[in-house]
Amino acid sequence: MTNTDRGQWRSRMGFILAAAGGAVGLGNIWKFPYVAGMNGGSAFLLVYLVLILFLGLPVLIAEVMLGKATQRNPVGAFKALDHEKSPWRMIGFMGVLAAFMILSFYSVVAGWCIEFIIQGAKGAYSSSSSPEDVQKLFAALTSSPSKQILYHGIFISMTIAIVYAGVQSGLQRVCEVLMPLLIVILIALIVFAMKQEGWQKGVRFLLEPDASKLTPNTILAAMGQCFFSLSLGMGAMLTYGSYLRKEDNVVSSSAWVAVMDTGIALLAGFVIFPIVFTFGVEPAAGPGLVFVSLPGAFQQLPAGTIAGIGFFVLLLAAAVTSAISLLEVIAAYFVDEFKMDRRKVSIGFGFLCFLIGIGCAVSGNFFDILDKTSSNYLLPIGALLISMFAGWVLKREIAQSDFKDTKFAKLFGLWLSSVRFIAPVLVVLVFLNKLGVFK
Ligand code: PFF
Q: pLDDT by residue (tens digit) across 136-156?
């Protein structure tokens, strides 16, 4: 297959927005605040930012580089760079497994957004409703498996329909519009949050250093979140990189994606925590945090209904662009490696994710197991192996070509030491710390 058959991004900006669209999703707006809230706020944030810089960014560059160099799927890329039976193709298999697990619970949460859009249309964000009303709505939703399964089914069908049609260019266009809109609505919400009595408390919660909150679990959660949010460790970014044009710069494109992804998570944090403290919501409330805190803010806005519905529509859209990249990892693997029909694969495996997701709608424990196993173990192990491959196996000329003759030439040594030593050592240390080795 030639490059033109596979399709390519129209421009470097097209790649950045599409990759950022894949990275930015529920992870930034739903998961980041609640995981930060459950893991000590500022302690979590500090570790998170350090990990994005020393672990996330180098691995992101490595994934995009491997994709661009081979123009293949995550299993094919390792075969092309090593050999047909290369053990490194395990990374691709693990990525497919992680994609199944993540998509199954991701779709259930995205389904919650549908309920919050419908409730908004019924007046949940008007001044006649109270924050307690919405908290009750959320509790009712999560204790109703049938409702959650219905919305989960709707969401997964939307995802399947887009991957089925293979609308690469449509996807790019959607991301170009949605990302800026999402940023605008978050900034508007920050302006609102700044005027609330909980603003200072919220900001302090995120920024005031408190070493006593730094536990092995906080560090593990921050690492899991770093990979989950940047969609790393499972070949999704490798696949996006495989559509880059030869002249596009891997390093600056990756840096932009990391900056946008982290920036949006921070914006969400600075919106949510002040609101949490203003309305007396518990910061460690868990997965419902965004859903039970923000409606209280919408109810006080003059155009609250429109703002609230708009917010959940955008969150749903951000979730769709990420879910597509998850299903795409599965589809690309089965289409390329087993010559299966793309349409059958999207429907068949999308349906399998629907079935697994039913377990998440019924049991919070099952939800937690899928979430934690994928984010805290599969993605970090995938990222560890990818960085070792890029650092120790990939031909140096290939890696260097993405730095040479660019303004990043001087950073090659730093990147190489990161993927060879810093990133693998960090992942191993976090695991050992979690196992209690340093106590
Ligand atoms: N990065 C996405 C988010 O933050 O919502 C989730 C995700 C998408 C993870 C795609 C992994 C992936 F391959």
A: 999 999 999 999 999 999 999
Residue spans per domain, the chain: 12-434
Check pocket membership of 326 for ligand 1, CB cut-off 6 A. yes
CB neighbours of 157 closer than 8 A, spacing ≥ 6? Answer: 350
Answer for the pair 324, 24: CB distance below 8 angstroms, yes or no: no
3-state helix, strand, coil in the chain (%, to 5): 80, 0, 20
In terms of Cβ atoms closer than 10 Å to its own Cβ (0-12, 13-18, 19+), residue 97 is middle
Q: Is the minimum distance from the CB of 315 to ligand 1 under 6 angstroms?
A: no
Is residue 295 within 8 A of residue 115, CB to CB? The reply is no
What are the tens digits of pLDDT across the range 32-77? 999 999 999 999 999 999 999 999 999 999 999 999 999 888 999 9
Fold of 12-434: Hydantoin permease (1.10.4160)
Q: pLDDT value at position 172?
A: 66
pLDDT tops 80 at residue 12: no
Tell me how far apart the alpha carbons of residues 428 and 66 are, in angstroms, rounded to a whole number: 23
**Is 108's C-beta closer than 6 angstroms to any atom of ligand 1?**
no
Which among 156, 100, 150 is positioned nearest to 320, based on CA atoms?
Answer: 156
